[in-house]
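pasting DUF305 domain-containing protein for the record, 203 residues
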Amino acid sequence: MTRPRAFASALGALLLTASLVGCATTDAEPSTAPPAATTDTAGGEVSETHNDADTSFAQMMIIHHEGAIEMAELAVDKAEAPEVVALAERIAAAQGPEIDEMTQWLGAWGEDVAASDHSGMSHGGMDMDGMSQEEMMEWLSGLSGDEFDTAFLEGMIAHHEGAVEMAEAELDEGQNAEALALAEKIIADQEAEIAEMKEMLGN
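structre below
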């Protein structure tokens, strides 16, 4: 092979190699797509926009839901009527995930999960027909049979009425869209359960 022809062949090989390297580099470039948005336990975005009413609602409703679950779990063990047991199971199953959701909101908002002042719980919150959560649990624990079922239903009606009142206050004063939506859900769900429990009692 003559020198000019050999030089041309070598140059062509270099150009081919450079072209292949360029294609590989282009294909390997990282994606410039924006990162996924932060989501809550329900799969929606967590908005940091909130006010004091939203914070108080989440903090107090967590405590309130925990009380309802405590009562419901006792009813699952002690209630005599199958429909009361089924209701108690539904209450516990529904309110557990809502506690998780509100806990995540408070974290996203930079707020404490535990409220510094629980005084609001005596106003339509944990005060059930003149009894605190501790007094209600102690009383229910000493009952059995139909007597337990009746006391549980009456106590849970009062408990639900407190939750509805708290949720209505959130609708009046709150700002966060997710909290307002949960307040509406709590009102709808618990008013339906109040009607169901009253029917069980024959009211």
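The helical segments are 3-27, 52-78, 82-109, 133-141, 145-173, 177-201.
Confidence is low (pLDDT under 50) at residues 2-38, 119-125.
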